[in-house]
Amino acid sequence: MNQQLNREMFERAKRSIPGGVNSPVRSFARVGGDPVFVGRADGPFIYDVSENRYVDYVMSWGVHILGHCHPRIVEAIRHAAARGTSFGMCTQAEIELAELIKQAFPSVELVRLVNSGTEAVMSAVRLARGFTGRAKVIAFEGCYHGHSDGLLVKAGSGLATLGIPASAGVPQSIVGETLLAHYNDLASVEALVAAFPDDVACILVEPVAGNMGVVPPHDGFLEGVRTIADRIGALLIFDEVITGFRLSFGGAQQRYGVKPDMTCLGKIIGGGLPIGAFGGPRSVMERLAPLGDVYQAGTLSGNPIAVAAGIAALKTLHDDPPYELLEKRGAYLEQALANAAGIPIQISRVGSMFSVFFTGELVTDYASASATDGTTYARWFRELLDSGVLIPPSPLESCFVSTAHDDSVLEETAQAFAMAFASLAS
């Protein structure tokens, strides 16, 4: 493949954009080479600026469960744009999207639309603090909840220690209210509760971790977290920005049968445009302004074009549920990876999300996920890219399958897997 134009684009970008990228995850620093600059996309494929074609398993980081440029979504965007791009006022479409979310998530009685997953989680945490009158948040190492100050935190030296900043520019005083437990480890949650018995406002968790690669919850983990939250009077918040509408129409909470107090959503509910949402029971959500004393606002919240795209996406998922098909396609790729590997790997998959860890040890949390061999992953990434298959340019991100990845695309991918692993072994 000719990468010269990508290289030229990257050099040009670095002159105007920090690091040449508008989100660090787009950088190829972990895998080497220059980022792919996309010119267009269609179905399961993206095409770079030189018209090189790639089978896409990034899918805008999970957004495009129906594939790129789904006709129903594209038409909804066109129709909405012709009527106006932003009003800063109420619209009927906002109500319709909220009703679709409530239909999918019985735990949600009221929902507030925002502009990103980061904003959704940040607002849900503020609401939990306002509702409970407490300050501290229990989160889990390796789970990513956006880049708001209080959640950019990394582990301290022990289970019952306060977090320390994971980014320059974040004051210790802010992340000091965030406590980090270990994913899939209820004992670590109990240790934090014992250390701060009356201070925890909420327990915040990805019900299926998707930002340290795919790490599913152990049997009883989510139920245990639910029990602990109830016992201490804290709210349980599920960050379903990735899993919402992907693992089932009702997200991970439907798949695992555990009901949170609040749910944060993003990705799919915008049909490819920026959006987020958070919701929960009326008793909690009515503490939000203008009804209550917890302030949250946004000029572009409920943007009419994003809402129209989201309605089209959710109606399509509701009218013709793809989840059984996506399960089969995910299983096909999992088996293709297992057949091709020839070296120690761990394949982690839940539905249409999957990850490959280059380690011989079982992956259950951030520490075990971080044991993956990043150098081998980088070689594997570049082999796949040369074969026309795009996976995340980071060993700790998730791959995503869409309804557009048909049998021929899956077979092409399986062949690329085989060739990439063969190259690693040579």
Describe the structure.
With 426 residues, this protein is of the alpha/beta class. The protein folds into two domains: 4-65 and 322-425, Aspartate Aminotransferase, domain 1, CATH 3.90.1150; 71-319, Aspartate Aminotransferase, domain 2 (3-Layer(aba) Sandwich), CATH 3.40.640.10. 38% of the residues lie in helices and 15% in strands. It is built from 15 helices and 16 strands. Strands 4-12-11-10-9-5-8 form a seven-stranded mixed sheet, sandwiched between helices. The protein has a four-stranded mixed sheet with strand order 1-2-3-15. Strands 13-14-16 form a three-stranded antiparallel sheet. Strand 2 and strand 3 (53-56) form a beta hairpin. Helix 4 packs parallel to helix 11, helix 7 (186-195) packs parallel to helix 8 and helix 14 (374-386) crosses helix 15. The longest helix is centred in the last third of the chain and has 19 residues, at 407-425.
